Structures are given as structure tokens and as C-alpha cells.
Amino acid sequence: MYGILRLFVSVINSTDKKSSIHTDAVIITLENVGMIVIWLGIITMIVGVIVALEQEKIVRMLAYHSVSQMGYVIMGIGVAAYLGFEGAMGFAGALYHMINHGLFKALLFMVAAAVFFKTKEKNMYRLGGLYKQMPFTAAVGLIAVLGITGMPFFNGFASKSILHHAIIESYEYGHPVFRYAEYMFTLVSAGTAASFIKLYSKVFLGYSNDKYRHVKETYGFGTLAMAILAFFIIIGIFPNVLMDLFIIPAAHQLSYDNYFINNYLGDMTFFNVVDLSGMITVYGLGLLIYWVGMKYNLFHLHLPKQFDPESDFYTPIYEKSGQSIKRALDMIEQFISNSDVFIYGTMLLVIITLLLNYV
């Protein structure tokens, strides 16, 4: 994502000190590409969160949420490209969310690992009540969950708020169709909340499984690492620090309109009535999705095995194709090993031929 962002930024910066004809051509191209990228981001968000909701294994759910969260970033990059010189909000949101995702997702994977190492269980539906046996893991896990779902005063709230403002700008300064993208943005955020309500409640809350009553939490360097990550997630209570020290100065070094940077990003008020009330909507919808999903058993709907490329149905095919590829590679390796003299001789002949032609 950072590479893609740098690519679009480089294209925008290429207009510096260039003719108006060149600049107009670049901006029109970015607008067309950006429109496509925004919808690719929205689709990625939706597909990722739907598949994540259907998972039973903790790590698989987190992995699909990485897909969904990268959809947020793609959408932000798309807005940055679509609005051209006025796309500083998309740039800031995408960069901020990449940083935040690295923090709360790393901690979530560490929590999943801590649970697995103690229980040897990957399926969240077979756990429960682990807050008693693993209080520290439950505490930092809750912090990570609040971060990824965008709870106010945690780091995810800041970057998701910026991205929300970015998609609003895309229809205020661009095409009104992006208002539907905003609705989808809110729905995906609610789906994310539902996913992690499910994850946390199934793993740490409820009745304890008798099988894991013997589990005892241990502490070490891993504990310290988890505590450090949790600390930076909680630092989300001061969202302007990262903005003022890093992101806004970075935006000023680029070709974005200074008016948009100073008036929309500078001294941005995150904890306002609109954004805070928006999170009430997100969490309310998230609770509703979770309740409906659990009541009607909607979180266990799976494709027929013939349509699921990860099912055991395709294992024999993968094994046979893997063996065929391995045999082919072994033959190539054997040929190279046995043909050193031939290869060196051929290279020497080519070099001599080139030298003769040069002379």
C-alpha cells in the first residue's frame, strides 16, 4: 500500500513546474484512475469483512480483516488520486491507517498466538471465559479490538475519521455517486465491529471451558511487546500528535493544495459531535449484525466445497500439481548442474562473437 501511495504521489509531483497542458492531462488521468481505485477499495473492504465474519478460526478471521483494512487504505489512496491537488485528506487517511493497522493488527495476532500457545485451540467457538485465566491478554486484546473497530480515544478512530472525511470530500468536490461509497464505508465499519464483538466474546467472555481451566498466564518479553503496542494504541487519545509531527509536514512537501491542508487537516478536531455520534451508529449496527448473525446462525454459511479453493476437495489436485512442478524444477536443476561446461562454453562463444562484431 505504501508503494502504491508513493506511486500516485510521484505522479502528482510530476506536475511541478510543468505546462498547464501537461498538468491537466495528469490530473484527468489521476481522476479516472482514482475513481476506479476508490471502488476497488470499497469492494475489498466489503469482501474482506464478509469473509471474516464467516470464520471460526481466530487467525483466519484476523487475516481476512487485514484484507478488509487494506481496503480502507486503497480507498484513501483512490480519493487522493481522484481529487488531485485537493486530495490531501485521502493521502493523510491512507498513511495514518497504514500506521495504525500495523499497531493494532500486530497486537491482535500476538493475542491470538498467546491464546493458541496456552490452549492449542484455533477455533474461537471452542474457547470462552479466558479472561479469568489470561487477564493481561484479555486486557490488551480489548485495547486492540477497540483500536481496529474505531472506538473514540483509540488510534483507529483517528485514521478512520480522516478516511470518512476523505470519502465525503470525494462526493462534495467530485461525483455524487460516492455518497453510496460512504454508506458502504459505514456498513463495513459496522461489520468490523460485529466481527470483533464475536471474537472477543467467544474467546474471553462467557463460561469457561472446563478443558482450559488449568491454563495459567505467563509473562516475559512477549508480554512487554504487547504492552508497548497497547500503549501506542491508547495514545490515539492524542491523534493530532502524529498528524502535526509527521503527516501534515509530509503533505506540505508534496503538490497538494496548501489551502486544503491548512483548513482541513491542520488542527483537525477529531472529537466532535458528528464523528462521535457516527461511531454510535457504527457500534449500534455492529451489535445488530452480531445479534442477527448469532440468532440465525449466519456466521457459519460456507460455499459448497467445489466452489471453495481452500477446501479439502482440492487438496489432491494441489498435491499432484505440486509434485509435477517439483519434478520439472528438479529436471531443470539437474540439467544446469550437469551442463556447467556447456553453459560456460556458450557464454564464452557469445562474448567472442560480440567482440569480433565490435572489432
Lay out the secondary structure:
Blueprint: H1 2-13, H2 20-53, H3 58-82, H4 88-119, H5 135-149, H6 155-172, H7 178-203, H8 221-234, H9 239-252, H10 258-265, H11 273-295, H12 315-338, H13 340-358
Helix pairs in contact: 2-3, 2-7, 3-4, 3-6, 3-7, 4-5, 4-6, 4-8, 4-9, 5-7, 5-8, 6-7, 7-11
Short account of what is shown:
Helices cover about 75% and strands about 0% of the residues. It is mainly α.
Q: Overview of this structure, please?
A:
Its main location: membrane. GO terms for molecular function: oxidoreductase activity. One of its GO terms (cellular component) is plasma membrane. It is a multi-pass membrane protein. This is NADH:quinone oxidoreductase/Mrp antiporter transmembrane domain-containing protein. By secondary structure, this protein is mainly α. It has two domains: 300 residues, no CATH class; 44 residues. Helices cover 74% and strands 0% of the residues. It is built from 13 helices and no strands. α3 runs antiparallel to α4 and α3 runs parallel beside α6. The longest helix has 34 residues. It is globular. The relative contact order is 0.11. The mean pLDDT is 90.
Attribute tags:
mainly alpha, 359 residues, 74% helix, 13 helices, 0% strand, globular
Kindly give the count of domains: 2
Helix content: over 70%
Q: What integer value in Å does the Rg equal?
A: 25 Å
Question: Which term fits the overall shape?
Answer: globular
Number of E-state strands = 0
- Report the average pLDDT across residues: 90
Portion in strands: under 5%
Low-confidence residue ranges: none
User: How can the largest sheet be summarized?
Assistant: none
Secondary structure category: mainly alpha
Count of alpha and pi helical runs: 13
SSE order, one letter for each helix or strand? HHHHHHHHHHHHH
The separation of the N and C termini measures 50 Å
